[in-house]
Records
---
Amino acid sequence: MTKMIIFLSLVSMSIIGGAIFYQYFKLESPVSPPVIEIIPASYDFGDIPYKKVETTFKIKNLGGENLEILGVSTSCGCTKAYAKENIIPPGGETELIVTFDPNLMDYKVVGKVFRAVFVSSNDPLNEEVRIDITANVVEG
């Protein structure tokens, strides 16, 4: 009889101990962090007259958590950019609109122009993405 009580006590403690262990150390499948991808990675407007031009990029979230666009900036006042949505769910995408206007430069430039757009996000491995923009401004 004593052996039976000891046996049942050990089984009960094992079950209770297992439940406690499971509560504190349960293994959950990890959720991957947000992952930003911008397509295309760069853009060349080619030959353009002295006027404003625009293009659209796609910002994708390849991760498992929401991607937050924390800011969009440019290397020059002649280049403007904004994301249509600032929170992109896992697997989702939004548009990044970029305009370049040579009329907004401090001086008249003719020829090849290099500018950059910077997109900051909560992607822990790629907090800021740089997109290179080029154009060949021609008189006309």
Note: The longest strand covers residues 111-121.
---
Amino acid sequence: MTSTLNPTTDLDSARRASTSGTSAPLGTSHRSSAPRTSTFRGEIPVCPVESLIGGRGVAALLPDGRQVAVYLIDGTVYAVCNIDPVARAAVMSRGLVGDRSGVPAVISPIGKQAYSLADGRGIDDPEHGVSVFPARVAADGTVLVATEAAIRHTLAA
């Protein structure tokens, strides 16, 4: 049996459960030549895995207001920051999905820059990268995304 999620109720529950002041700053997908790694505190349910269409992205809202883009590629779920690090627009979930030399990648729909879904690095321009959030499919088929990035690309001064 597949569970269905009520996005409004689940988001409200996640917001109530989140602790203020512990999350990364809004828009953690920015310029960096050296990503930082971190651990995550929790996960949020996004949708049933059957709702994802292979090779296409969906956007999800984290409890602190940040957005992630979630993709299903060859049975693997990936999640990255939804903010395009060059255009600064929330469009990565609408990007083209494929691979570059065997590396799963998403291509920004605005500037056409490619980013690795595995580590967020800019494939075309290493000065830019997107933060990567751990994602998995639970036993009941629900896609879960971490509320903290595992690999964070930050804005260079």
Note: Helices lie at 7-17.
---
Amino acid sequence: MNTTRPHGDPVIDFILGRDGARLSFAAAVGITFVSCLVLAAAAASGLLGGARAFGGFVVIVVIVSWWSSPVSALALAVVALLFANGFAVDTGGTLAWHGEADLLRLLCLLALAVTASILGRLHLDRARRQGPPAAADNRSHDWWQVADR
């Protein structure tokens, strides 16, 4: 069984996924958890209102999902929903189900997370297909030398 990873460094291999360009599941959930924890502390202290705090959770999920797999993105949306329910909707970390409102929040987070993950994957695949940018000629492309040509 070949267990070599793309980089060989265990820390980098833990953070990056199998392809070396996406976040691993553990790293994505960890980044989301810590980010949501900081945002929840701000919401619990009164610095952010409920709608702004939920918007912050949405931004966290979209950004981290861009660099994650679709399966990881689903988990990120659930983690963010738990924090949003505990600190943006209710205060003091009390989790409760609020019926259709929570279902709508969950569906919103899931849709945004999966969409960001798929768009991130498409962007990565397109960049890999195009390869590194090739220089049009061997001349220097410094801005101060443009006027000399």
Note: Confidence is low (pLDDT under 50) at residues 1-5.
---
Amino acid sequence: MGNYISFIIIGLAIVAMYFLMIRPQKKQQRAEAEMRNSLGVGDEITTIGGIVGRVVAVKEETVTIETSKDKTKIRFVKAAIRSVDVKAADAKAAKKAAMQAANAPAPKAVEEAPLKEDAPKKAKKEKKEAQAPVAEVAEQPAEAAVEPTAEEASDNKEA
């Protein structure tokens, strides 16, 4: 009976290792392979060596990137790509939105001038609002005052 329990414990440990270590690693590898296979011209990438650049050519196993203003081109194996920072489609959409925002006319602020007839009504309303809190304080009942307890009253008499 004891031998079976030890085999069961070892089997459970192996199953736990699979779900905690092996399965997440395979999922990450699939995601990285999908990212590398979906590279396109114009994507901004970072290599495992830390080189940042824009993809200018994609072949079956290699990627050519442009890294600086001097248009330096470097060829890498796809496995050397760490991440895609900006997809070309996202960059085009952001650039288009920025261009539209820059070319769009600014909204005009239309401020309506108050009518002369409304001015006295507005002044009376503001005056009433300013007096309202004072009236509310005056209308509070006198019973709202807190009376001292018997102990506090005796302490006050002794002092």
Note: Residues 1-37 form one domain.
